[in-house]
Amino acid sequence: MSKMLTTDHGADKSVVDLLRFLLDTEKVSGVLTLRKTNTSGSLDYGLLTRSQELDRAVPLMPVMPANAAQSLSLITPTQKPIAVVVKPCELRGFVERIKREQGSLDNVLTLSPTCGGVIPLDTYIKKSKDNLTKDYYKQVKAGEIPESIRPTCKACEYFVPMTADITVSVVGEQNLDSKCRFILNSDKAVSMTEGFGSVENGDLDAKILDDHLKKREKEKKALFESIKFKQDGLDGMIDVFGKCIGCHGCSRVCPICYCLLCDFESRNFDQNVSLFEKELEQKGALRLPPDTLFFHLGRMSHMSFSCVGCGQCTDVCPADIPVASVFKKIGENTAALFDYVPGKDVNEDIPVLVFKEEEFKELGE
Amino acid sequence: MDKPNQNEFKPKIVGFLCNWCTYAAADLAGSSKMEIDSALTVIRVMCSSRVDPNLILTIYFNGADGILIAGCHPGDCHYGKGNYFTRRRYAQMKQVFETLNLDPGRLQLSWISAAEGNRYAEVVNAFTEKITALGPNPINQSSLF
């Protein structure tokens, strides 16, 4: 049985209170959380070191202005202890980055909610925020999948954080406005929260989460069916990726794509006129900008097994390509080859850096 | 000599051969005067694990009809364990192609040791036959890619 800490305030306030407690008692020297940038409601991630800065904090807001995994790489490893409030997929993304030596969980206390999903940035910016979050929480409290969230969030089966020190119970919590339950998953969590409230034995409600998982799995099936993978081969790929303008935004916001110089932006892909001439001679036409489909296939074959399905790539795509949905499907298949679940265990190596002698015997004709 | 039939499809196949095993096997097959189909263009690499997915994709998008990656048998790698990594990468690459239905049959991984000149000729000829049956790479037929 895990340890559980219950407060008599709403979830948002309780998390802020806990962060304030950690800062005031100097158990941490900084906290990373979502916060309001201005009164019109725009958001960013902030690393806050003074407790009055927490007045702006909205740690559980269902918006992802950036995948925090990238931000965490900037501020870790850290000598001074910090607390971070991130979504489960951001935490998984960060774990994947740590495996690639892009950060560390040392001195980091991780808080993560059971995630109801994230509202696309575009929707969040354009629509009335109050109504949007009101509807969102109404459905989350009931254990339903909110209508407004990202397609990949609807289809996400990893909404319970895998490696968080403290899990904040959100999904299916009827009394989210008046009560908050923190599950303390590690000894660190227990010692850090000592003095904040009374701790008892308790855990997440497995029944509610199971029911919710079934709904997500159903959505996932529908999502994959909505993208025609198997039918058309190359023509199908053109249907999906033909709109690509080659901005590489998807890889820029991807928590996994950490390379400072992506191969696709390197001199390797400087275009050579003689290549074009050959292609023109052969086909009589040339697509410009070139190599867009190549780019997506290249990303898939380099990092899809680590895809955490956060949906940030779809969010930023100016051409409305469902990048994340395709990557989720591909990633699921490539990760399954190696019995790999991205972000599950920080001590596990990424699949292309290890091998077993007794595997894939069927390969090699 | 017979004039080759203009309409007959002659595939272009690119092979990445490991310097220590398969490339030597190709040498052996040649010096033993075995018949090897001329469809294969050989690129010598120091280890089959050097073949990055982007190399395969470069060749695929430049219109090769088939791509062969060949190295030492698992356990016999000149560098100890390079080909185990090749195998994992290839499995992943093939899975991407399978999921998207992009003719995964155009990719092949083969283990051929330096002593297997015979086997080299067999593998190359069989793969060429397979690709000939598959027909030209659709990449070559559309300017949309």
Sheet bearing the most strands of chain A, described?
8 strands, mixed
Element-by-element helix/strand order of chain B: EHEHEHEH
Shape summary of chain A: globular
The separation of the N and C termini of chain B measures 38 Å
Series of secondary-structure elements of chain A, N-terminal to C-terminal? EHEEHEHEHHHEEHEHHHHHHH
Q: Structural class of the helix and strand makeup of chain B?
A: alpha/beta
Which consecutive residue ranges of chain A, at least 5 long each, have pLDDT under 50?
A: none
Oligomeric state of the chains in view: heterodimer
> Do you know the CATH architecture of chain B?
3-Layer(aba) Sandwich
Radius of gyration of chain A: 22 Å
Number of helices of chain B: 4
Q: How is the CATH topology of chain B named?
A: Rossmann fold
Proportion of beta-strand residues of chain B: 15-25%
Summed over residues and divided by their number, the pLDDT of chain B gives a mean of: 91
Write down the overall geometry of chain B.
Answer: globular
Average pLDDT over all residues of chain A: 91
Q: Kindly report the greatest chain-chain contact and the residue count on each side.
A: A-B, 45 and 43 residues
CATH class of chain B: Alpha Beta
- The number of distinct helices of chain A, counting runs of at least 4 residues, comes to 14
- The figure for the number of domains of chain B is 1
Main sheet record of chain B: 4 strands, parallel
Structural summary, described in words:
The complex is a heterodimer of chains A (365) and B (145). Chain A has 365 residues and is an alpha/beta fold. Chain A folds into two domains: 3-224, no CATH class; 227-353, no CATH class. Chain A contains 14 helices and eight strands. In chain A, helix 2 (68-75) packs across helix 3. The N and C termini of chain A lie far apart (51 Å). The mean pLDDT of chain A is 91. Chain B starts with 12 loop residues before the first strand and ends in an 11-residue tail after the last helix. Chain B has a four-stranded parallel beta sheet, with helices on both faces. Chain B has helices at residues 22-31, 53-61, 82-99, 117-134, and strands at 13-18, 40-45, 66-71, 107-111. The mean pLDDT of chain B is 91. Chain B has one domain: 3-Layer(aba) Sandwich (Rossmann fold), CATH 3.40.50. In chain B, helix 1 links the parallel strand 1 (13-18) and strand 2. At the A-B interface, helix 9, helix 11, helix 12 and helix 14 of A face helix 2, helix 3 and strand 4 of B.
